[in-house]
From TrEMBL:
Its cofactor is Zn(2+). Binds 1 zinc ion per subunit. Its EC number is 1.8.4.12. InterPro entries: Met_Sox_Rdtase_MsrB (IPR028427), Met_Sox_Rdtase_MsrB_dom (IPR002579), Mss4-like_sf (IPR011057), TAT_signal (IPR006311). Catalyzes the reduction of methionine sulfoxide (MetSO) to methionine in proteins. Plays a protective role against oxidative stress by restoring activity to proteins that have been inactivated by methionine oxidation. MSRB family specifically reduces the MetSO R-enantiomer. Pfam families: SelR. It comes from Dorcoceras hygrometricum. Keywords: Electron transport, Metal-binding, Oxidoreductase, Redox-active center, Transport, Zinc. One of its GO terms (molecular function) is peptide-methionine (R)-S-oxide reductase activity. This is Peptide-methionine (R)-S-oxide reductase. Belongs to the MsrB Met sulfoxide reductase family.
């Protein structure tokens, strides 16, 4: 696990230093310590308890699924080149290089690698950074938070709980009601529009545990 972490950090050294925002996150780190925030992401095969959602954002309840674990060659075959560098090498896409505007219709954002539900489109906001930004995940158990001390900074990295792929980082400069900004790489997300394509709700409900 240590070797994989080192290789991912080394290969991502040419990426942008951060996905915007502040780097001193005492409130987030304190909360993570209280919640048992892991120092490293676990990548062993096995099942994982997720919260499942329909594309319209309807909560289908807890579901236990097999964590997606692939070889490097299999990941390269499964993901586009930039998505591979971001999700499996902890890279960062260039700002404003991908879709980042809040969609005009209701729906959710899923992991492009394993289809785990990650964010309700109603929680996206314009952060001005050029990356999709959300004030909360659709369910806390669907993402993994871990300390990221790479590149001489102290940050909280966000990975997909369904496949342990890197998504982005979370910062403490977001809007109400959470004050958080989950700053994601667009190449890691796939938008699934709700059936009917109606307009979004003005606000999403509280995040699920």
């Amino acid at each position: 696990m240590e070797r994989r972490r080192f290789l991912r950090a080394a290969l991502s050294g040419g990426a942008l230093l951060a996905v915007g925002g502040s780097y001193a996150l005492p409130r987030l780190l304190a909360a993570g310590a209280q919640g048992g925030l892991p120092a490293l992401v676990h990548t062993r095969p096995g099942d994982v308890l997720l919260e499942c959602f329909a594309d319209d954002g309807r909560d289908l309840g807890p579901c236990r699924v097999q964590r997606l674990v692939l070889s490097d060659a299999q990941w390269r075959a499964r993901l586009p080149p930039l998505a591979f560098e971001v999700m499996r090498r902890d890279g960062t896409e260039r700002a404003f290089s991908g879709p980042h505007e809040r969609p005009a219709q209701a729906g959710i954002f899923r992991c492009i690698a394993c289809a785990t539900a990650l964010y309700d489109a109603a929680t996206e906001f314009d952060s001005g950074t050029g990356w999709p930004s959300f004030w909360q995940p659709i369910a806390k158990r669907n993402v993994i938070e871990s300390r990221d001390d790479s590149l001489g900074m102290e940050r909280i990295a966000i990975d997909c709980a369904g496949c342990n792929s890197h998504l982005g980082h979370v910062f403490d400069d977001g809007p109400p009601p959470t004050g958080l900004r989950y700053c994601m790489n667009s190449v890691a997300l796939r938008f699934a529009a709700a059936a009917g394509g109606g307009p979004q709700a003005r606000n999403a409900g509280a995040g699920r545990a």
